[in-house]
Amino acid sequence: MSIRFIRFISSRWTRLVLVASVVLGFQTTLFNDLRPFGVMAQVMVLFAACAGVIYGAEIGAVAGLIVGLMYDCVLTTPLGLASLVLGATALVAGAFPYFVRESSWWNKAIAVAVASAFGEILFPVAQALVGLGGWVQWRVIGVALIVTLLNLFLASLLMPVVRWTLKESLVG
Amino acid sequence: MSAISARRKRAIALLSLTSIILVTLDLQGSGSASVLRGTFGVFFRPIEGVTRVITRPVSNAWHGITHYNAVTKENDLLREKIAQQEGAAVAAAASVRLSQELLALNGLPTLAGINSVSAQVIGDSPSNYSQSVEINQGSDSGIKVGMPVMNAAGLVGKITKVFPRRSIVMLITDPEYALSVKVINNPEAASPIGDPEASASTSSTTTTTTTIPKPQATSNIPGFTPGTTTMPLTTVNVTVNVPSLTPTLTVPANGALPVRETGILEGRGSSRVPIVRFIDSAQRFGTILPGAPIVTSGGSLSLAPPDIVVGTVSKVTDRLGTAGPILEINLVADLTNLSFVRILLYQPITEQVKP
Questions:
Q1: Which tops the pLDDT comparison, B29 or A58?
Q2: In this structure, is residue A8 part of a structural domain?
Q3: Measured between alpha carbons, how far is B21 from B6 in angstroms, rounded to an integer?
Q4: pLDDT given for residue A170 in this prediction
Q5: Which residue range forms the structural domain that includes residue A125?
């Protein structure tokens, strides 16, 4: 029983929930305040995209769905919507390791930024699909562009955190 | 390895299915979504609080760098505005008091008769695709879903989610927001004519005669006839100007009375101003001019009590046929800089939960 509990506590998914809580804290405070050009940096989308780029589609998608569900709990959009969007974002980002085998850090940063743009555009589209119309506007393109640039810069900072968080074992 | 992969695929399918079910439940208004959010909030709020304390210096530094010039300019402008408005506020307060007494005497509803709760805005929506703010009062203070939220300037939005000690306010600019409003228009005949100085001097004069204005108004205040009366040439060719202490009865001509027409105000996101649709293009209503005030219409099915100031018309787009014009609105409340708000404890019938 105790071994099982220790295994659960030390698993990558428990670590993910704890680290994502802190990242979500940054999202709702610091990044909510700093809005360059009136656009908020989406670190939760960035987290999901990093998970996909570093660990591939499968782990990325699970991480994206979990992180998205946590993000959903602080949003006013229907619960589960951000989870699906972030899951899809991580899945798309997860295609990167299949195309580029030995990638450098800046290759990964660009892939993360592009996947972030996809997630940022997907969000209003998903809102429209569930009947919350009005957000699919030309402004979305501008928002996605700024989020891409911000996440390009932030990706290099968050990638080591995501790599450590989703590491299978902390030993070795 | 393949067993792990199959397990992960099962996890992805399970999580996706859970998300879809949660979306469906939340859209149907199920309470389970609120319970989940509330439970998550219990664990997350302390983490958020600590992060807020840690990151506050960075936020302050950012705002100091990016907004310093704007804040200095705004301060100068506000000082000037306060000086201008101090005098006007005293007169306005007296008028409002008088109006409320009159409405109360006639048994009509007034905003003064509705209790309210003051709250502080503690956060914006952490998304680029939602127009809402969080306030620090909730169901413990009597707040319920649907209650209108105002600030000192005018209407701000409505309560959409309530927790024991906090609530979520959907702003007027959210595309999901719609509200029945009145446009108070002045007919074209009463459009500004004459110089302001003349009107200022005449407004202080009283007269004992009942005034019947000619088609051309001699004041720039719609619906108001100056005390100095010029009778038509066909009757008596003399100007009467008798100062007196007796009360004046001024009867404006029908054409000079403000006309009201209702429409629906709709938010269009943060980058676009709200609009008013479904305005009747009736002859009586006349041409709507920019600057016409917009107030809530009230009524049993409306989301807000009557006569809360919303904004003024900034642009009128005419449409062919009977569709009526579309009005773009300049909101009086500055939604980008909300600090304190007032929640009217008025729950519309449409938002009341049936037992």
A1: A58
A2: no
A3: 22
A4: 63
A5: 13-159
C-alpha to C-alpha distance for B155 and B148, rounded to whole angstroms: 7
CB contact under 8 A, A80 and B22: yes
Q: Which amino acid is at A89?
A: T
pLDDT grade, residue B297 (50/70/90)? confident
Q: How far is residue A104 from each of residues A89, A101, A108, A155, measured CA to CA in Å?
A: 21, 10, 7, 13
This prediction has a pTM of 0.65
Give CA separation, B334 vs A167, B107, B146, B150, B339, in Å. 47, 33, 21, 11, 10
The CATH number of the domain where A148 resides is what? 1.10.1760.20
**Residue B61: is its pLDDT beyond 80?**
yes
Best of A18, A31, A74, A147 to disrupt the B interface (most B CBs within 10 Å) is A74
Helix (H, G, I), strand (E, B) or coil at B117: strand
How many angstroms separate the CA atoms of B325 and B221, rounded?
25
List, for residues B238-269, the tens digit of each pLDDT value.
Answer: 444 444 444 444 444 444 555 567 888 888 88
How far is it, in rounded angstroms, from Cα B347 to Cα B145? 8
Q: Which residues of B touch A78 (CB under 8 A)?
A: 22-23, 26-27, 33
With CB atoms and an 8 Å threshold, state whether B132 touches A83: no
What's the gap in Å between the CA of B162 and the closest CA on chain A?
A: 12
Residue A35 forms part of a structural domain: yes
Provide the residue ranges of all domains of chain B, joining segments of one domain with +: 1-85, 115-186+258-355, 191-256
Instruction: Considering only CA atoms, give the Rg of chain A.
Output: 16
Residues in chain B closer than 8 A to A21 (CB atoms): 43-44, 47
User: To 5 degrees, how large is the angle CA B233–CA B234–CA B235?
Assistant: 95
User: Over the stretch B84-138, which tens digit does the pLDDT of each residue have?
Assistant: 777 676 667 667 767 767 776 776 666 666 788 889 888 888 788 888 899 989 9
Structural domain count of chain A: 1
The Cα A33–Cα B59 span in angstroms is 6
CB contact under 8 A, A83 and B267: no
Which among B330, B236, B128 is positioned nearest to A139, based on CA atoms? B128
**Contact (Cβ atoms closer than 8 angstroms) between residue B172 and residue B155:** yes
The question of ipTM being above 0.90 is answered as: no
The CATH number of the domain covering residues in B115-186+258-355: 2.40.10.340
Per-residue model confidence as pLDDT tens digits over A2-38: 788 887 778 889 999 999 999 999 999 999 888 888 8
